[in-house]
Amino acid sequence: MATKIQVRRDTSSNWGILNVVLSAGEIGFETNTNKFKIGNGSSAWSALPYFSEAQDLSAYLTTSSASTTYLTQASASTTYATTGSLNSGIVSASAAAVSYLIDSAPAALDTLNELAAAIADDANYATTITTALATKSPLYPSTNAQTGSTYTLVLADAGKYIEMNNAGSNTLTVPLNASVAFPVGTEITIIQTGAGATTISPAGGVTVNYYSPTANAARILKAQWAGASLIKRDTNTWVLIGNLT
Which of 1, 151, 167, 211 is exposed most, by the fewest CB atoms within 10 A? Predict the structure, then answer.
């Protein structure tokens, strides 16, 4: 669809009654006189001069010669604007309007194309960013409370506290990456809130490295209220740090 640009316009009498303050670079056109003024952001309409030293351009007739249009003088006693000066003034007014629009934007972001590129030409940028933010871990971890004797970690457990609350022995399983693809760097905290001992058990193909003061190969939390953190270091490799037996 073609772009249409319009300037503010009204009759000279209405401009005089309203006596508005035009923004810097803003053009105000008189529909009955074909004259216009350019605002400076502070002066009222009545205080602004007409463009091209208040010359009445409607007093001139236009004639064409070859490919150039000229303004011809209607009265020998009247000073008039040439096509060159008129074009120069229009260019100047346009430059002022563009400058006002750009304001102090840096050179790398002062065109519509550069602004579009800055948001990856994404017409739904706000939705894209909102969706991406929703996948991030919350600032404060939430808790996943488990009361059964077994539990296998799921993707939603990333960054959470897993509470194992069972009176008897219970097992938490770390799944294979092919089953649950936690990102490398994921950290999950396990807390034994029940009396039953919690064992952290890797699924087949998963390695969980840890240190135990008793060299216990079962990766068991020390007692009720003991805790340990699982940190994913590679595709199927984790490290377990905490209160182990």
Answer: 1
Report pLDDT for 1.
60
Amino acid identity of 170?
N
Exposed/middle/buried for residue 46 (C-beta within 10 Å: 0-12, 13-18, 19+): exposed
In a domain, 126, yes or no: no
172 touches 202 (CB < 8 A): no
Mean pLDDT of 153-163: 96
Asked whether residue 109 is domain-assigned, the answer is yes
Same domain, 79 and 162: no
**Cα distances (Å, whole numbers) of residue 28 to 96, 101, 163:** 14, 17, 71
Residues 96 and 67 in one domain: yes
Do 101 and 110 touch, CB atoms closer than 8 A?
A: no
pLDDT for position 223: 96
Check whether residue 35 and residue 62 sit in a common domain: yes
What's the CATH code of the domain at 228?
2.60.120
Number of domains in the chain: 2
pTM: 0.47
Sign of the alpha-carbon dihedral angle for 78, 79, 84, 85: negative
